[in-house]
């Protein structure tokens, strides 16, 4: 009986992989429940092939260290776990085609209405995950490599959105594409810079950060004019940085935001469970 229960538990496990512009983002689900997440660098093809081996230990079990160490809090499966992929990097997606039980998610699987063909799967999934969890109308702000805004109305119809360079990308562009400007590192920014700076590095920080925050504020205000009962969720690697700045400048607005880093995984979960 115990063995049968264990096998049933293992069969409910599945992995979600978001292939982002700079890293891989992983989630382990047991049925509908999100059990753990982790981020890794891109993996070599040899490691990907190893993960498809039925003898590979993904996590920690039987006293042996697995590929992701403590990523899986449960005993390792004796066969490759089902893997669902959402990717914005086609070259990386191709490396996973050899994995035995892999399904790559596409836009036509997402029930949002009025989707256009070039909409990023990450934006669509995050919007679907947020809307299905907290309700529509929903605006999702993603503070990642790119800063994006993606919204849908109460009928789950895509309203549209916007894309611009994120915080780090703007600093990299200024440092690499100009002859005299220094490279500003994100870890050097610990608080809001002076708006009118008296040195070059802080002037760059001021220009990037204050205009980004003003842009976010403007999009939120425009969204609430269109949909006064609309909800707003924020995700992405820079979400905490942006949220802290928004709390300093616009505390009431910041307090209304839903902060959830796993929106894409929740979007994947809704679709996977709907197909079972």
TrEMBL record:
Pathway listed for it is: Cofactor biosynthesis; coenzyme A biosynthesis; CoA from (R)-pantothenate: step 1/5
How the cofactor is bound: the record states: A monovalent cation. Ammonium or potassium.
| Keyword check for Secreted | no
User: What keywords are assigned to this protein?
Assistant: ATP-binding, Coenzyme A biosynthesis, Cytoplasm, Kinase, Metal-binding, Nucleotide-binding, Potassium, Transferase
Gene name tied to this protein: coaX
Q: Which family does it belong to?
A: Belongs to the type III pantothenate kinase family.
**Into which EC class is this enzyme placed?**
transferase
The subunit structure is: Homodimer.
Q: Where does K(+) bind?
A: 142
The cross-references to NCBIfam families, in alphabetical order and at most eight, read: baf, PRK13331.1
The catalytic activity, as recorded, is: (R)-pantothenate + ATP = (R)-4'-phosphopantothenate + ADP + H(+)
PANTHER family reported for this sequence:
TYPE III PANTOTHENATE KINASE (PTHR34265:SF1)
Task: List residues binding ATP.
Answer: 18-25, 145
- Keyword Metal-binding on this protein? yes
Q: Which InterPro entries match?
A: ATPase_NBD, Type_III_PanK
Its name, as the record gives it, is Type III pantothenate kinase
């Amino acid at each position: 009986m115990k063995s049968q229960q264990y096998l049933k538990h293992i069969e409910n496990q599945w992995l979600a992989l978001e292939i982002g512009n700079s890293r891989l983002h992983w989630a382990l689900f047991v049925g509908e429940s999100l059990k753990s997440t982790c981020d890794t660098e891109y993996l070599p093809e040899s490691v990907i092939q190893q993960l498809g081996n039925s003898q590979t230990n993904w996590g920690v079990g039987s006293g042996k260290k697995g590929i992701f160490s403590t990523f899986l809090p449960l005993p390792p499966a004796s066969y490759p776990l089902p893997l669902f992929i959402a990717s914005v990097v086609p070259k990386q997606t191709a490396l996973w085609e050899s994995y035995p039980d892999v399904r790559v998610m596409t836009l036509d699987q997402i029930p949002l209405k009025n989707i256009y063909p070039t909409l990023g799967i990450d934006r669509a999934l995050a919007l679907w995950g947020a809307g299905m969890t907290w309700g529509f109308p929903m605006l999702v702000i993603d503070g990642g490599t790119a800063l994006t805004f993606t919204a849908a109305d109460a009928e789950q119809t895509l309203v549209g959105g916007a894309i611009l360079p994120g915080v780090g990308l703007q600093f990299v562009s200024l440092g690499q594409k100009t002859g005299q400007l220094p490279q500003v590192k994100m870890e050097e920014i610990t608080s809001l810079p002076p708006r009118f700076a008296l040195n070059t590095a802080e002037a760059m920080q001021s220009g990037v950060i204050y205009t980004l925050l003003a842009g976010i504020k403007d999009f939120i205000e425009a969204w609430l004019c269109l949909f006064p009962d609309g909800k707003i969720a924020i995700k992405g690697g820079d979400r905490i940085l942006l949220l802290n700045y928004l709390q300093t400048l616009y505390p009431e607005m910041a307090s209304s935001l839903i902060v959830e880093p796993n929106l894409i995984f929740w979007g994947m979960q809704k679709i996977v469970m709907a197909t079972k």
